[in-house]
Predict the structure.
Amino acid sequence: MRMYDEKRVSPIGFRRYSLQHTYVIRDQDGTDRDFESLYQQYFPDILNYLVHCVGSVADAEDLAAQVFMKAMKNLWRFRWNRGSFSSWLFRIAHNEMKSFYRKRQRGELAGFTDSFFEMNGALCQEVERAEQDRMQHRFYLHLQEKMSELPSEEQSLLVMRFFQGKSYGELGDIFRIRKGTLAMRIHRSLKKLKKQLDLEGLDHEEFKRSFESLSQA
Amino acid sequence: MKNLKEALRACPKPDIQVPDFQAQLLQRLKLEQALRDNRRQSWMAPIGFMAMGVLVICFAILLTLFVVRPDVPRNLNQWVAQKWSTQSPANSYQPIESPRDFWGNLGVAPDMVSGSELNPDAANLLKTVLAADGDKNYAQEWVQQRFPQGAPRVSSVEQEKIVTLRWVRLDNGRKVLVMNEFDAGKLKKNRVESADLNGGIL
């Protein structure tokens, strides 16, 4: 699977690689996908993943913008045989998230948002609405807060596995580790999370019961 | 632990949707891509030429090192001087001043030929031809031997011939002597080559 430029297809059907046009890539099943359709498909997943990790819609928007900017710049490097496009995007998102934490620790995040967009009124309102929606999920906020205290890789693993329902295969593609190692890391991360919840006196059994009662209602 | 997993899975999570931001980001990405294309077009050509130049230089270096493989020491001047001094005379062009010495140096001097399996006539002929290659004195001696009584004086050598002689074995078991003549005047430029040819055959 490689990129090509549709305008430069030769008469014998051999598709030449293009250095200049990086919008179109061919899917595993042979269908052509342009970057726009991939963006429309994966943007919500990436944004939600970043919101779960970072805990702020505004920061997650900035990170998502960085992720897709990098994806577009490096689309020519992408190969299907090394994993799906979604895995590739999530790997970029994970790296961006780690970089975000690092910068935040160093206090280098000033002007981060302004570099991409001038937040006009409509966008600000949209962010506020999203934040309000997030704040309504009380249990989720507790869990997210505790998860954010874990190391970034463990946090990503838990978010992708339990919040976004990704399989071990997909996680293996994203983090480039074997399934056995993955299972072990997830287990350790859960243990750490459970310990933190216990320290805070938060009973996840109670959470579960309340979720079930909510879902029944 | 299992309950925690289930709690994490079952926990109601917000589904964040930001359609305005999404649309605006897409426009921004398209703009960025267009700008990048323009920027790339401006520096792709020089980079391409530079890369081609580097490739050609690398190819030339590899060709020199692995195909030509010159035995060049560190001191290049020393190597050139050594190369010049050790150049063998046989490989370098030298004008032939004395034909007799020249033929003799090739190992087919008339004395050596006389002891070979050539018959006397052929040996004499060879001697004559080889030695009379522009040598008036030797031609005079040969004429005196052939015509002991009243031998005329040789005034000049009219024609020079280069002769190759080959013993050829026929199917019926006989050996015959085959002689080829070349006009030395026409072959003067290729004298070294023709001399090599004669020496090799004899």
Observations:
- The radius of gyration of chain B is 42 Å.
- Residues 88-97, 102-118, 189-202 of chain B have pLDDT under 50 and may be disordered.
- The longest strand of chain B covers residues 161-169.
- The CA atoms of residues 136 and 157 of chain B lie 6 Å apart.
